[in-house]
Specification:
alpha+beta, 5-stranded mixed beta sheet, 17 strands, about 25% strand
């Protein structure tokens, strides 16, 4: 009897686990689609992934259950053919009811987050329709006319008003995943609504807030990567804006001790801005065979070197600097080829150098051309 009870308890446990596996439920009616199909798709960060196809009955009713992990809400979309008929943001345990038609008109009950998502999408559609209608007025106007200028001013006002409204939305809903589609909205086909470089601050702020609630969400992780890219671009713009009047973009990167050193702080009459990587054996040999002899010969005559490592593993770089006794300024931000310095100086490949003389860039070249480099240094030092 004891064995039977144990088996019964184990079987009951299995049944409970199975029933709880797909604890998020969607039911509804597609009014004009009896005996039809509803395609269930999941937003897999930046693309749709088909989860299933559900049959509707004679009245257009359907039911579907899916597994949504705790703390990892999912963006789920219902399609009839190629037409998206409902948008859902579902959390573990949600039980939502959808009333829809095949034209895209729908309502949802049972999910607060879905109701927010619907409001976000409808506000976006209203703005898009208004903006498109105003844009269409330009087609029949002389681009230089006062009327065309007025239309363009109206478009600017619409954009600014909507942008401010969306900023307010994300600030008031910073712990809701619905801020993510807001951050990625577009104006027309090509312009991001959040297109200003300073919008990186909004991306970072939302990541910080969402990670406190959904640290494991794939959507939050993807948003964090986008925030990093935007922050890098913002830093790049800042460096350009703060470039010295000397004629070269400023760099201020950490050395082997973690202290940030500015390129402009070097006082040599000639400065070699040197891009390289310690991860490549041939470039470490280049240090010993070319760079070091050049530095030793010309340093006392006014040569300085600012060497930017494009390594991701900073320990490998720091070890190479110390072991090879590279006595010039060595810096590395650990971002590799994604470093803003690469974009700022349009580095095509490593190793690569720029020569800065008296505050101006006078030469860029492949560092392997040792003879040309020495000839130039002999002429100016």
């Amino acid at each position: 009897m004891r064995n039977f009870n144990s088996l019964f308890a184990a079987a009951l446990c299995v049944l409970m686990v199975a029933s709880c596996g797909k604890s998020t439920k969607v039911s509804g009616v597609v009014a004009d689609a009896p005996q039809s199909e509803v395609i269930v798709k999941l937003l897999d960060v930046n693309r749709y992934k088909v989860l299933d196809t559900v049959k509707t009955d004679a009245s257009g009713a359907f039911k579907y259950a899916l597994d949504v992990q705790k703390g990892q809400p999912e963006f789920i979309y219902l399609f009839h053919g190629d037409k998206r008929i409902a948008s859902l943001l579902l959390e573990n345990g949600d039980n939502v009811k959808v009333t829809a038609d095949t034209l895209g008109n729908y309502s949802v009950s049972g999910s607060v987050e879905t109701e927010k998502l619907i409001a976000v999408e409808r506000a976006e559609a209203d703005f898009a329709n208004s903006f498109a209608a105003t844009t269409a007025k330009l087609a029949d106007l002389d681009p230089e006319s006062a009327a065309a200028m007025q239309v363009r001013q109206d478009l600017a006002k619409q954009y600014i008003s909507y942008y401010r409204d969306r900023v307010l939305y994300i600030m008031q809903n910073s712990h809701s995943l619905t801020v993510i589609p807001v951050l990625y909205q577009k104006v027309g086909e090509n312009l991001d609504l959040f297109s200003q470089s300073t919008d990186a601050l909004h991306f970072n702020s939302m990541v910080d807030s969402l990670k406190t609630v959904y640290p494991d969400s794939k959507y939050v992780k993807a948003l964090e990567e986008e925030a990093k890219l935007r922050s890098s671009y913002l830093n790049l713009q800042s460096m350009v804006a703060n470039s010295t009047a000397a004629g070269f973009p400023e760099l201020k990167l950490p050395d082997v001790n973690g202290n940030k050193v500015a390129l402009s702080s070097l006082e040599g009459k000639v400065v070699i801005l040197y891009f390289w990587t310690a991860d490549a054996a041939d470039q470490k040999m280049l240090n010993l065979e070319t760079i070091k002899p050049v530095y030793e010969k010309y340093h006392d005559r006014g040569l300085d070197i600012y060497a930017v490592s494009l390594d991701v593993d900073k320990s490998v770089w720091a070890s190479a600097v110390r072991n090879q006794k590279l006595d010039w300024t060595n810096v590395c931000d650990g971002l590799g080829s994604s470093s803003p310095a690469v974009t700022l100086y349009n580095v095509p490949a490593v190793p690569f150098i720029y020569i800065i003389k008296d505050g101006d860039i006078v030469l860029d070249a492949n560092i392997s051309d040792d003879a040309t480099l020495r000839k130039y240094l002999d002429s100016v030092l």
